[in-house]
Specification:
single chain; about 500 residues; alpha/beta; Aldehyde Dehydrogenase, Chain A, domain 1; Aldehyde Dehydrogenase, Chain A, domain 2; 2 domains; seven-stranded mixed sheet; six-stranded mixed sheet; globular; binds NADP nicotinamide-adenine-dinucleotide phosphate; binds magnesium ion
Length: about 500
């Protein structure tokens, strides 16, 4: 065991935990008006307090929004390339601090250390793309209707943006909101998920070190109802970038609509891998299994349904089973693990409930699913990854987002049937299709009702490509890539007569 333990992470934790962190408002670390804090525990060691965070209130929200509103006046006038230079420095700092950030990320979220490192480096890549975008805030020049009139369009930053993130990607999600906001000249009030506020503290320190002026990015921790609600309702907040569950996304959108402010919503998924034909089932399983079980299946783009044509089903299921058995569950700091605990006990119970419902409704549990709670597993919310077979479209496990390490296998009659099953859910985030037939791949790309489609490829996205969903998986401009300009800026049509 010792040889597979990352001792550096454990030693680093020993000397960096149990501190108390303030909110970051107008460039200063401040305690909340409520005077109350909440403890954050290690996801893989429920006895270890990582730190104490502010239980903020509406008063703190108000201060943070006022600071961001005030800072907007000057930040929005900083030339784009200069803002970009600051974001480039931030990307460099993310890389230089990747080790420490990964320790914090794995400790609070639970994912394997290698995954955390990958997340931090991905955040740096996305930040760099945004840094470049700050020099490409383009408008159009059109011919005037009259000889002495020029007609053009320009883009201007919308103002203060509320950024609200979930707990599954605590580093990349805030960076995905803050970096484009900075690039386009907006200012930010950011609320992390209560389950993962620790890495955000480090992000604020790095932003400050990069040269982001005071008040431009503000951070407030606290519960969704006490902080999130006043933040999204605040009259000075001009846009809401929210990543989280669909139910909450809809509520936020309703409130935003009343004030006519913009939203960018990244919501849940029920992502299919449609398998039509293959020469080697193992190759397909090697693509599907990591895309289903990375981050313990707690990814919005996790593959959760394998929809396979019936004459290929047995061979593929055997290959999936074999691949799944290679997943080793354990705490993040053990170097040979591939899957950490779930975020917490309550979420584990919810995933277990789905598994039971699936079995009650007639699905067959082919592998795993059991809760692990002895020895070191007693200190976190662990379960074995699960493979459910004979899942049919009307079952709950086939339509609802489980957000855990459960992969459902569904049989399709043929290509048409597979497409119908893939599209039969309320979500439309990402989908994969596996086939060597060009026409089948093309048809799937055309007809799948999703925001992101992958041919012969798991559901991994790229750091410069628009990212978002259809149906109940998203709303507003896609995040990542150049589509962000539609959320973070307003369009202005300009006429000059001379
Ligand atoms: P969640 O429960 O919807 O919470 C998301 C964030 O909203 C948290 O910061 C939460 O704060 C906050 N919040 C709670 N109540 C609020 C309110 N009334 N007003 C404003 N904010 C409020 O989601 P989660 O459980 O953290 O994350 C899992 C979900 O996120 C899944 O459905 C997953 O698919 C989705 N997700 C989507 C994407 C994507 O890009 N499409 C990416 C990742 C995750 P507290 O933590 O304090 O409750
Ligand atoms: Mg939640």
């Amino acid at each position: 065991m010792i040889s597979t333990t990352n001792k550096d992470m454990l030693e680093w934790l020993d000397t960096h935990i149990e501190k108390s962190y303030g909110n970051f408002i107008d460039g200063e670390w401040k305690e909340t008006f409520s005077g109350s804090t909440f403890p954050l525990y290690n996801a893989a060691n429920k006895h270890q307090v990582l730190g104490y965070f502010q239980n903020s209130t509406e008063v703190d929200v108000d201060q943070a929004v006022e600071a961001a509103h005030h800072a907007f006046k000057s930040w929005s006038k900083v030339p784009g390339p200069e803002r970009g230079a600051i974001i480039f420095r931030f990307a460099d700092l993310l890389e230089q601090n990747a080790e420490e950030l990964s320790y914090m990320l794995s400790a609070e979220q639970g994912k394997a250390l290698a995954e955390s490192k990958g997340e931090v480096l991905r955040a740096a890549k996305e930040a760099r793309f945004c840094a470049g975008e700050a020099s490409r805030i383009e408008g159009d020049t059109l011919p005037g209707e009259r000889a002495n009139v020029t007609s053009s369009t320009m883009r201007q930053p919308i103002g203060v943006v509320a950024a609200i993130a979930p707990w599954n990607f605590p580093v990349v999600t805030p960076v995905r909101k803050i970096a484009p906001a900075l690039a386009y000249g907006c200012t930010v009030v950011y609320k992390p998920a209560s389950a993962t506020p620790w890495t955000s503290v480090k992000l604020m320190q790095l932003l400050e070190k990069s040269g982001v002026p005071k008040g431009v990015v503000n951070f407030i921790s606290g519960s969704g109802s006490k902080v999130g609600t006043p933040l999204i309702n605040h009259p000075l907040v001009k846009g809401i970038s929210f990543t989280g569950s669909t139910d909450l996304g809809i509520q936020i959108n309703e409130r935003a609509a009343r004030r006519l402010v913009k939203t960018q919503l990244e919501l849940g998924g029920k992502n299919p891998a449609v398998v039509l034909d293959f020469d080697n089932a193992e190759d397909i399983a090697k693509q599907i299994v990591p895309a289903a079980f990375a981050c313990s299946g707690q990814r919005c783009t996790s593959l959760s349904r394998v929809i396979v044509v019936k004459d290929k089903k047995q061979e593929l299921t055997e290959a999936l089973l074999k691949e799944l058995q290679n997943i080793k569950v354990g705490p993040s700091w053990q170097s040979d693990i591939s899957m950490g605990p779930l975020i917490n006990q309550q979420h584990l119970e919810s995933v277990q409930e789905y598994l039971s419902a699936g079995i009650r409704e007639g699905a067959k549990l082919l592998y795993g699913g059991e809760v692990l709670n002895t020895g070191q597993f007693a200190d976190g919310a662990y379960m074995q990854p699960a493979l459910l077979d004979s899942v049919t479209p009307q079952m709950r496990v086939a339509g609802e987002e489980i957000f855990g390490p459960v992969l459902c296998v569904m049989e399709a009659e043929d290509q048409e049937d597979a497409l119908d099953i893939a599209n039969s859910v309320s979500y439309g985030l990402a989908a994969s299709v596996f086939t060597s037939q060009f026409s089948a791949a093309h048809q799937f790309v055309q007809e799948s009702e999703v925001g992101m489609v992958h041919v012969n490829h798991g559901t991994a996205s790229a750091a410069h490509m628009p990212f978002g969903g259809w149906k109940h998986s998203g709303f507003g401009a896609y995040s990542i890539g150049k589509s962000n300009i539609d959320f973070f800026t307003d369009l202005k049509a300009v006429y000059y007569q001379y």
